[in-house]
Amino acid sequence: MTERLKIFLCHSKEDKVEIRKLHNKLTTSGFNVWFDEVRLLPGQEWQLEIPKAVRDSHVVIICLSQNSVNKEGYIQKEIRVALDVADEKPEGTIYLIPARLQECSVPSRLSKWQWVDLFEDNGYKMLVDSLKLRMESLQINELPTDSEMKRFRQIDNNEITTDSLTIEQVLSLARTSISIYNNPRFVSDNREGKRECINRSMSHTLTGACRTA
Q: How high is the pLDDT of residue 170?
């Protein structure tokens, strides 16, 4: 199973609307995102689960706004836990990323890290570029490209066949089939659905490899 980059979203509850949008974009891009609204289950102790999720994550994105910067409460504890974990990382590790949702000041304890302005046109792209650098350092496989994702979707929906693909494209499809296993853009949370999707895509891939060899 291909590992995906694990990301924790640290945020103020007043910013839930923007955080939902960010969560959806990151998930659609193929990342494994921990967002309390989605991951916390009834009966779990959130004061135990949240610090654990912070420590288990490859990257913590601290979402800053006028709400969170001046807010007291649990978000400050989340930031403190993230700072403690960051201190344990080798120098130069991309682990903690301050992300401004709007124009606001960056707390001094976070100012040593370059922040990203998600409200700017290129903000999300810059964030993904940083996340890909973190993936490289962890030797996590590159995410499938948009064209690879589109081709997979077309083949899975029988819109095109592997007869029309070159050997390079077939090999690319094989890589996409493996990387896609945990990608919610194509695969349901149901385990049987995942297995069926992968079996179908790999069948297409093997058929195409035989025809193009």
A: 60
What residues make up the domain containing 207? 146-212
Same domain flag for 132 and 177? no
39: exposed, middle or buried (Cβ count in 10 Å: 0-12, 13-18, 19+) = middle
- State the CB neighbour count (10 A cutoff) for residue 25: 15
Q: How many helices (H) and strands (E) does the chain have?
A: 9, 5
pLDDT band at 102 (very low <50, low <70, confident <90, very high): very high
Picking from 138, 157, 179, the residue at the C-terminal end of a domain is 138
Task: Return the H-helix or E-strand segment holding 64.
Answer: strand 59-64
User: Of 138, 173, 189, which one is at a domain's C-terminal end?
Assistant: 138
Confidence band, pLDDT 50/70/90 cuts, at residue 67: confident
Q: Is residue 65 part of a domain?
A: yes
Residue 47 and residue 115 in one domain: yes
In 3D space, the residue among 162, 163, 165 whose CA is nearest the CA of residue 202 turns out to be 162
Written in H, E and C, the secondary structure of 90-129 is CCCCCCEEEEECCCCCCCHHHCCCCCEECCCCCHHHHHHH
94: Cβ contacts below 8 Å, ≥ 6 apart: 59, 130, 131, 133, 134, 137
Between CA 68 and CA 13 the distance in angstroms is 8
Say whether both 99 and 183 belong to one domain: no
Residues 78 and 122 in one domain: yes
